[in-house]
Write a structure and sequence with these properties.
Elements (H helix, E strand, L loop, with lengths): L14 E8 L5 E8 L6 E6 L10 H9 L2 E6 L17 H18 L5 E6 L1 H12 L6 E5 L10 H14 L4 E3 L4 H4 L16 E3 H16 L8 E6 L7 H11 L2 E5 L12 H21 L1
Parallel strand pairs: 3-4, 3-5, 5-6, 6-9, 9-10
Antiparallel strand pairs: 1-2, 2-4, 7-8
Length: about 290
């Protein structure tokens, strides 16, 4: 199967595998793995953002594959081709357990290969919470535009309102308000027109994300694995100042990208962003190999 996105270069023939698997929540999940030619230097496990799906990362997988890294991921429950009510979760813990279950699958499939966790936006919140509580679960982490705080209403007021209503009717979903124009400067990015993208978020999921974003900030000092944190300083969705706060407490590497929006991997400057990620990974893998 041929990777379709080209980054202005000749097409690269990735090995792409698709499957479904049943999580502990008894929901069927869709997963996809993009493998490079030859043995990968590492397997990057992607946790995507709110409302989207892993199919939006074809071009990113192509770039990683060119640099001998595999990209693997699954559609979160209630997202993409996976089962579940759109934008709703059973619980935050159940979501973390699903991520852990998928990572265990990757460890069994690639026992001698470093597994790197990449979380974007909502996935960044999930990934940070995971590595802070399961430091031995992965070799390293990439975090982009994490949902630690939003750029909307004051977090304290929002948290109080959402917590009250989430207790009464946690299943109620509201529009998440995300728009293509706030994701990237590239007007050709498909988001709102993508049939697998949805615009819903339940009160339970919203309340959980706010609570666990604050927990990650309070516990950032517990970080014990290599982690690259990146954020566009013109992000209109998640707060880059929260990423700065986390990096200062965690003492991890932070890269702020001038003028970039929320989806740095979809910006016109995406080459530079992805090259930075690959260079960081190559250095990390090289250091591990020499130890």
């Amino acid at each position: 199967m041929l990777a379709t996105d080209e980054f202005g270069k000749e097409k690269y023939e990735s090995r792409i595998y698709e499957s479904t698997w049943m999580s502990g929540q008894r929901l069927l999940h869709f997963s996809r793995t993009w493998m490079p030619q030859g043995n990968p230097k590492g397997v990057i496990c992607l946790i995507h953002g709110l409302g989207e799906h892993i199919g939006r990362y074809h071009h990113v997988a192509d770039f990683f594959n060119r640099n001998s890294f595999a990209l693997a991921g699954f559609d979160l429950p209630g997202h993409g081709l996976s089962e579940g009510r759109r934008g709703h979760i059973k619980s935050y813990i159940a979501l973390q357990n699903t991520i852990d279950q998928y990572l265990q699958r990757l460890h069994k499939q690639y026992p001698d290969t470093p597994i790197i966790l990449w979380g974007h936006s909502m996935g960044g919140n999930l990934a940070l919470n995971y590595v802070l509580q399961n430091p031995k679960g992965v070799s390293a982490a990439l975090i982009t535009s994490p949902w630690l705080r939003t750029m909307g209403p004051p977090q304290g007021i929002l948290k109080t309102i959402v917590r009250i209503f989430a207790k009464v009717a946690p299943w109620i979903t509201i529009d998440n308000g995300l728009s293509s124009k706030d994701l990237s400067h590239d007007e050709n990015i498909s988001y709102n027109q993508d049939p697998l993208v949805h615009s819903r978020i339940s009160l339970r999921l919203l309340a959980a994300m706010i609570k666990r974003g604050q927990w990650a900030l309070r516990n950032a000092h517990k970080l014990s694995i290599p982690l690259l944190l990146m954020h566009g300083n013109a992000d209109k969705i998640t707060d880059p100042r929260a990423s700065q706060e986390f990096s200062e407490k965690a003492k991890c590497e932070l890269e702020l990208w001038p003028d970039l929006y929320h989806e740095m991997h979809n910006e016109p400057q995406k080459y530079k962003v992805l090259e930075f990620m690959v260079a960081w990974l190559q250095q990390h893998i090289s250091q591990n190999s020499s130890q």
